[in-house]
Amino acid sequence: MNGTPDALQTMLGALDAVETENTVIICPPFTMLNAGSARVAIGAQDVSAHESGAYTGEVSAKMVAATGAKYAIVGHSERRQYHGETNDDVRAKAAAALANGLTPIICVGETMAEKEAGKTMAIIESGVRECVPDNAAGRVIIAYEPRWAIGAGLTPTSDEIAGAHTLIADTLASMGMAGTPVLYGASVKGSNAAQIMSIPHVDGVLVGGASLKPDDFIPIITSVK
Fold first, then answer.
1. Is 145 a residue of the active site?
2. Mind spelling out the 3-state secondary structure of 44-71?
3. pLDDT in tens, 168-224
C-alpha cells in the first residue's frame, strides 16, 4: 500500500530507459492499474475469488483484466498474515485470475514457527499442490516467500533457497507442470539479486520494498542477465 500516480509514472519512465531482456512487472495498488508502458507489464496485488456481487471492497479478476493488467499476485505473505488467507482461498483466486485471462503469481512459503518446527518442506509442497488450480500448466508463476524473512531484513542461505526451489520445481514436474517459472521473494536488493538468481531453479525475483524507487529497483534488474 504505497505510491502515487506520479511516483508510478516516474518509475515507468525510468524503467523504459533500462536496457534489459528481462521481463519486468509492476504491481501497483488497484487505483493505478491503468498505467501504461511499452516495456513494463502491469499486475494487481490481489484479486477477489468472486466474479461479482455484494462483496464491498473486493475487486474481481474481470475488473482487473479490464484495466489492461496481465498479472495478479495471489496468496502474498501479507494477505495470509493480515487477512487469514488459506491455500483454498488462494486456489480460488488463482482460478478466478485464470478464468479472466490473467497470469496468477501464486505465493507459497513458511512462517518462522513452521520453520522452527521443521515443517518448511511440507508447507512448501502442500502450498504448491493446494494453491495451483487444475489445468494451469503454462499459465501460472510460483513465488517462494519465506514468510519469516519478509520485512525482517533476513535472507535464507543459498542452500535453503536452493532446497526450497528444487522442491517446488520437482513438485510442479510431478503435477505435469515442468518449466513453470519460480520466483524468489524476500529481502531482494541490488546487492544480492545476482547471487540469488544464480541458484538453480530460481527463475526470477519478487521484489518488495526495493521496488518503490528507481534507484533501488533498477540495479536489481540490471544485475541479472
1. yes
2. ECCCCCCCCCCCCCCCCHHHHHHCCCCE
3. 999 999 999 999 999 999 989 999 999 999 999 999 999 999 999 999 999 999 998
